[in-house]
Amino acid sequence: MNATLSTRRLDHPPQQQYLVAVRRVGTLDRLALHLGVALIKWGRRPHLAATREQLTLQHEEHGALVQREIEAQRELLLTSPLR
User: Fold this and answer.
1) What per-residue confidence (pLDDT) applies to 13?
2) Is the pTM of this model over 0.90?
3) Dihedral (CA of 2, 7, 11, 17) sign
4) Domain count, the chain
5) Is residue 77 one of the residues assigned to a domain?
6) Residue 77's domain spans which residues?
7) Which residues does 45 contact at the CB level (< 8 Å), separation at least 6?
8) Cα pseudo-dihedral 45, 47, 49, 54, rounded to 10
9) Does the residue 78 lie in any domain?
10) How confident is the model at residue 55, as a pLDDT?
11) pLDDT in tens, 1-16
12) Mean pLDDT value across residues 37-50
């Protein structure tokens, strides 16, 4: 291989380099975006509110669950062998 490649670069005609301006999002556009997202979230919220009876039942069920867990821990501690 005795061939050598030219390292000269020819640009005919010379190309201009263009600067692209960075476009920032304005405050008003950002506010409108946040408002739109908030409205979509608000529109997708559950429409049925829990009744007072349902809330009372949930509270009682949670209390019973906590009491069962306490009793299970107590039983486990009382029946486990001493170290």
Assistant:
1) 66
2) no
3) positive
4) 1
5) yes
6) 51-83
7) none
8) -100
9) yes
10) 95
11) 567 766 666 666 666 7
12) 90
Residue 36 has pLDDT above 80, yes or no: yes
Q: Return d(Cα 18, Cα 70) in angstroms, integer.
A: 73
Question: What residue type is assigned to position 47 of the chain?
Answer: H
Hunting for tokens 């949670």 — which residue is that?
62
Evaluate whether residue 43 is within a structural domain: no
Residue holding tokens 């670069």? 9
Give the pair of three-digit tokens for residue 61: 């069920």
Q: What is the pLDDT of residue 7?
A: 67
User: Burial of 7 by CB count in 10 Å (0-12 exposed, 13-18 middle, 19+ buried)?
Assistant: exposed
Q: Which residues contact 33 (CB under 8 A, 6 or more apart)?
A: 25
Q: Answer yes or no: is 71 within a domain.
A: yes
Query: What is the DSSP-derived secondary structure letter of residue 17?
Result: P
